[in-house]
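wait is this the right file?? whatever heres the structure
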């Protein structure tokens, strides 16, 4: 039999179908949450149905920002618990998790056996999240992927002083008007996010190995900035968005 893990994030809904006997992922996928999280779950299940037998699913667990919207699950668990479980499965040596999604950022300290020791979460300010990158990509007229490759070509450290995305947007417009390159501006944005995460970490002790998850972990440039600041290598799962849904499936 299989279990189903659902992570209804503010930007993307993710599902994982898990075989607990073999400890393998049977199916995984994500879909924009858009206006209806339930429609996103239905869409993902319809896609999964063409690859695997959904009648084998005998338990479900839901997590994520929108978890209360879904009432068919046997269990509803916090994002912190599910991210911890999913990351521990992927990287058993992981002791610190940095998850940056579309709307919040979380740092979780794990016990050696995978339990949650402590955590800090920023869900009040978009400046350290994917939202900041999306705004920047829009302003620089590029994709999120291109933003990273652009930043790799920067040749100067620019300072971004704004602590709020709305003001940072005006600052970026100003920097462009002054003739600064897109490459240097992109790098400054990634560094500003990395510094926010570094400051957020102040309440916790950084114990390696450090696992970097959430959609924002797809940014290879941000990974490099964080590695420079923290002085340690970051482990990124092959599909960095799905660790919360994986944890939900494991704990279902
Ligand atoms: N290549 C990329 N580089 C940088 N960021 C990216 C890339 N691809 C996606 N993202 C970011 O990942 C975000 C989505 O990540 P994720 O699915 O983890 O968020 P979420 O779980 O919905 O949000 P939250 O956890 O804040 O509720 C998008 O909003 C986008 O900003
Ligand atoms: Mg999330």
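ok assuming it is, sequence goes like this
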């Amino acid at each position: 039999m299989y279990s189903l893990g659902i992570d209804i994030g503010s930007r993307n809904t993710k599902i994982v179908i898990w075989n607990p006997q073999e400890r393998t992922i049977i199916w995984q996928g994500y879909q924009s949450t858009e206006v209806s999280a339930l429609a996103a779950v239905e869409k993902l299940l319809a896609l999964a149905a063409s690859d695997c037998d959904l009648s084998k699913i005998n338990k479900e667990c839901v997590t994520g920002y929108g978890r209360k919207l879904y009432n068919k699950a046997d269990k509803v668990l916090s994002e912190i618990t599910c991210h911890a479980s999913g990351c521990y499965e992927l990287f058993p040596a992981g002791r610190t998790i940095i998850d940056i999604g579309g709307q919040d950022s979380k740092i979780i300290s794990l016990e050696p056996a995978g339990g949650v020791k402590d955590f800090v979460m920023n869900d009040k300010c978009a400046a350290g999240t994917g939202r900041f990158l999306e705004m920047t990509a829009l302003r620089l007229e590029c994709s999120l992927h291109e933003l990273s490759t652009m930043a790799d070509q920067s040749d100067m450290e620019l300072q971004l002083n704004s602590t709020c995305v709305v003001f940072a947007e005006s600052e970026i417009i100003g920097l462009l008007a002054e003739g600064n390159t897109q490459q240097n501006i992109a790098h400054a944005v990634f560094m500003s996010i990395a510094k926010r995460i570094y400051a957020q970490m102040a309440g916790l002790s950084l114990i390696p190995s450090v696992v970097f998850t959430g959609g924002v972990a797809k940014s290879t440039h941000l990974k490099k900035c964080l590695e420079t600041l923290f002085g340690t290598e970051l482990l990124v799962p092959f599909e960095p968005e799905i660790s919360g849904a994986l944890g939900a499936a494991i704990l279902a």
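The helical segments are 37-49, 79-90, 130-139, 144-152, 165-177, 182-200, 220-230, 243-251. so i think its the right one actually
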